[in-house]
Amino acid sequence: MATGDRIQEEEISKMEEGFNTTNRGSDYHLGFFSSKDIVTILQKVFAEVVGTFFVIFSGCGSVVVNKIYGNVTFPGVCVTWGLIVMVMVYSLGHVSGAHFNPAVTITFAIFRRFPWKEVPLYIVAQLMGSTLASCVLALMFDVTPKDYFGTVPAGSNGQSFAIEIVISFLLMFVISGVGTDSRANGNLAGLAVGMTITLNVFVAGPVSGASMNPARSFGPAVVKHVFKGLWVYIFGPIIGTALGGFAYNLIRYSDKPIQEHLADSSSCFNTSAK
């Protein structure tokens, strides 16, 4: 009887082990899809889609309304761009960092303030948000070629390329100062960034359209099939923001010798974020 009971107990134990193994496998798969990290990344990506959508919808919307109806005026367009960026920074900055701009995302990654593995997700989200906003505007308004709400060089491509680098430099310099430096008042980040964009649009709007953002130019170009000078608005902002981020890193507080500080800044181009 003892032998029989022992055999029965062993069989029951094996059955329980198999049941537990199956449950662990199910829990693993369930855990993967309900992982906190996955949920957090999805929230960030969604925030970038929504934020970029409303930045482009409001900013480009003011452009197309002004061109069709003439009621917004150029200063109104400038202020609209600054206001919508400020509003979205305060609304979503705590969720995704409120990049809304592939050039900003890439620059943060270069200087190890954003993980490279999330860069493609952010860029896809930003391009998607811009394209969706452009589609909505194209459906809402009868946009003729003269009412195009994208960016096209008013002069030569070289002139627009140069000014995009300069204004993107300023934008990233300000973002680095108010958004990444612990000495700055982070509560004013949205206001400072929004005002910088307003100033940049005032200066560069008549020349290049003041994109500062590859996504801002990509969406309207794809929806309305206007690709003239598009490379200017892809490479110009990326180069400008990278230079702006590098420049601010040179004046960021550090207790290291200047030689080591410069070496660290240079090594950022060869080091991925963890």
TrEMBL record:
<dbReference type="InterPro" id="IPR000425">
    <property type="entry name" value="MIP"/>
</dbReference>
<feature type="transmembrane region" description="Helical">
    <location>
        <begin position="161"/>
        <end position="179"/>
    </location>
</feature>
<feature type="transmembrane region" description="Helical">
    <location>
        <begin position="230"/>
        <end position="251"/>
    </location>
</feature>
<feature type="transmembrane region" description="Helical">
    <location>
        <begin position="121"/>
        <end position="141"/>
    </location>
</feature>
<keyword id="KW-0472">Membrane</keyword>
<dbReference type="InterPro" id="IPR022357">
    <property type="entry name" value="MIP_CS"/>
</dbReference>
<dbReference type="Pfam" id="PF00230">
    <property type="entry name" value="MIP"/>
</dbReference>
<keyword id="KW-0813">Transport</keyword>
<feature type="transmembrane region" description="Helical">
    <location>
        <begin position="191"/>
        <end position="210"/>
    </location>
</feature>
<feature type="transmembrane region" description="Helical">
    <location>
        <begin position="98"/>
        <end position="114"/>
    </location>
</feature>
<keyword id="KW-0812">Transmembrane</keyword>
<keyword id="KW-1133">Transmembrane helix</keyword>
<protein>
    <recommendedName>
        <fullName>Aquaporin NIP-type</fullName>
    </recommendedName>
</protein>
<dbReference type="InterPro" id="IPR023271">
    <property type="entry name" value="Aquaporin-like"/>
</dbReference>
<comment type="similarity">
    <text>Belongs to the MIP/aquaporin (TC 1.A.8) family.</text>
</comment>
<feature type="transmembrane region" description="Helical">
    <location>
        <begin position="45"/>
        <end position="65"/>
    </location>
</feature>
<dbReference type="GO" id="GO:0016020">
    <property type="term" value="C:membrane"/>
</dbReference>
<dbReference type="InterPro" id="IPR034294">
    <property type="entry name" value="Aquaporin_transptr"/>
</dbReference>
<feature type="transmembrane region" description="Helical">
    <location>
        <begin position="72"/>
        <end position="92"/>
    </location>
</feature>
